[in-house]
Specification:
279 residues, alpha/beta, Metallo-beta-lactamase, Chain A, 8-stranded mixed beta sheet, 11 helices, 16 strands, disordered C terminus, binds zinc ion
């Protein structure tokens, strides 16, 4: 069994600045524990779900935008027990690890020095996290060195496209996944360059044809227009079961794929808990 927990489902400048949705990234547990794209609220939402940062095997950052890296250094301190134990892997695009024109490294030299291993992710190349194979995939986004990832878990392939616009190369590289996670920044009728909108998500999902599509990284306008409407459009166009992620939602990937309630009791009582999209 593999679990995918959404520590945030917001993305883009304004949804992040105003925390319209949390932006804490995605936590995948397949025995190997990976924290992907930890933006603001990563630590707080880990605490809410009783996830221990010291148990993380890899902090992974797809590109050098703060909705994806803002809390990475604190999580690296968690992974290394405050910096006292060389442990864990930091994975990042070239911009995140080394810096490229216009993008500073997102992780300081000190934080790179305390991790046991640093991986610069390059599209087409694979690496290993605690026994799990991960491939880096191409993107076309503001950060030219940005990547997506394909996780070869014990429950099949989970693909995360990262921040990207729709390109012809995306469908072939993500084909064969069971779960396709799409960062959809813009809603129906409002395409912008360098991001996926709902129509793009539908086209890509149709070509990749996974068991389940999960939409996340919602921009402010998309949240305002309604996330379910976007998921219904993608499902109708692609013929694939499509979920709009909710903050603190967990998706269990086993023989079947289902959503689960979080352990964050306080959050459920506030009515902000995960929604059972099977209901
Ligand atoms: Zn983003
Ligand atoms: Zn971005």
């Amino acid at each position: 069994m593999t679990s995918i927990t959404f520590l945030g489902t917001g993305g883009g400048r304004f949804a992040t600045i105003y925390q319209i949705r949390a932006t804490g990234g995605i936590y995948i547990n397949d025995g190997a524990r990976v924290h992907l794209d930890p933006g603001p609220t990563a630590l707080l939402n880990m605490r809410r779900l009783a996830l221990d940062p010291a148990k993380t095997d890899a902090v992974m950052i797809s590109h050098c935008h703060p909705d994806h890296y803002a809390e990475a250094e604190m999580l690296i301190e968690g992974m290394t027990r405050g910096g006292f134990k060389h442990a864990g892997t930091v994975v990042g695009s070239r911009s995140v690890i080394e810096g490229v024109a216009g993008f500073s490294p997102a992780v300081s030299e000190y934080h790179r020095s305390i991790a046991a291993r640093i991986v610069t992710a390059t599209p087409g190349e694979a690496f290993d996290i605690a026994g799990m194979k991960v491939e880096a995939t191409p993107t076309s986004h503001g950060d030219p060195s940005g990547v997506g990832f394909r996780f070869h878990t014990s429950s099949g392939i989970i693909s995360y496209v990262g921040d990207t616009e729709l390109t012809d190369e995306l469908a072939p590289v993500h084909k064969g996944c069971r779960v396709l996670i799409l960062n959809v920044t813009r809603p129906l009728g409002s395409r912008v360059p360098k991001h996926l909108c709902t129509e793009d998500a539908g086209d890509l999902a149709k070509k990749v044809a996974p068991e389940v599509v999960i939409l996340t990284h919602f921009g402010m306008k998309l949240v305002h227009d309604g996330v379910r409407k976007q998921a219904e459009f993608v499902e109708d166009l692609s013929g694939c079961r499509t979920l709009a992620a909710e903050d603190l939602m967990t998706v269990q990937v086993g023989k079947t794929i289902r959503t689960a309630r979080s352990r964050g009791k306080e959050i459920i009582e506030e009515g902000r808990g995960p929604v059972d999209l099977d209901a």
